[in-house]
């Protein structure tokens, strides 16, 4: 588990094909690796990876075909900057929100607008994720915990303050860039919970079309009428 508060900007040193998938070598910059052991988890652009080598100035991790197919990891190359966060501990301050490091889909930056000292990004999510994205809710973009400021269909708006721009890779975002998205864990679990006994039936999937409406939620005590 992670918090979505980026600890360091690292860079990709190498991506090496290995037995059909890829081993990635990450230089970790200012990230403190003194308490990291082989087998520990580190999020790279929001993707939870397992450290299999610790050469001293970074770590290596194996990236499966599943991860390559379901995230924007395929867009990385040697020299690419990446957001890094170590897995949280029982004493970690939860400054963002609970993040699993399991990417739900790949979005696309469709617009960038300067707004005083902040920058606004409009991002288009895959259509099957739109129902999980709520105004003033939480979303993780390339591992960064962020607040959704507006929603329009499958597109949502983020307002990024200067500190976040300087401490993450978001300052480099331009229209057309693909980004890893992880929706709020609570939204996914709530949908599954509301399926009730139907969740045990064959063919019941987390992302199949839902009959849950605002009136259904109000009738069942989730919204005030």
Quick description:
Pathway: Cofactor biosynthesis; riboflavin biosynthesis; riboflavin from 2-hydroxy-3-oxobutyl phosphate and 5-amino-6-(D-ribitylamino)uracil: step 2/2. This protein has 225 residues and is mainly beta.
Question: What distinguishing features does this structure have?
Answer:
seven-stranded antiparallel β-sheet; single chain; mainly beta; 13 strands; 4 helices; Elongation Factor Tu (Ef-tu), domain 3; globular; riboflavin synthase activity
What does this structure look like?
With 225 residues, the protein is mainly beta. The chain has three domains: 79 residues, Beta Barrel (Elongation Factor Tu (Ef-tu), domain 3); 80 residues, Elongation Factor Tu (Ef-tu), domain 3 (Beta Barrel), CATH 2.40.30; 34 residues, no CATH class. The chain is built from four helices and 13 strands. The strands form two sheets. Strands 10-9-13-7-8-12-11 form a seven-stranded antiparallel sheet. A hairpin with a 2-residue loop joins strand 11 and strand 12. The longest helix is centred in the last third of the chain and has 10 residues. The chain is globular, with a radius of gyration of 18 Å. It starts with 7 loop residues before the first strand and ends in a 6-residue tail after the last helix. The model has no long low-confidence stretch (mean pLDDT 90). It holds the Pfam family Lum_binding. InterPro entries: ATP_synth_asu-like_sf, Lumazine-bd, Lumazine-bd_dom, Riboflavin_synthase-like_b-brl. This is Riboflavin synthase. One of its GO terms (molecular function) is riboflavin synthase activity. It comes from Pseudomonas frederiksbergensis.
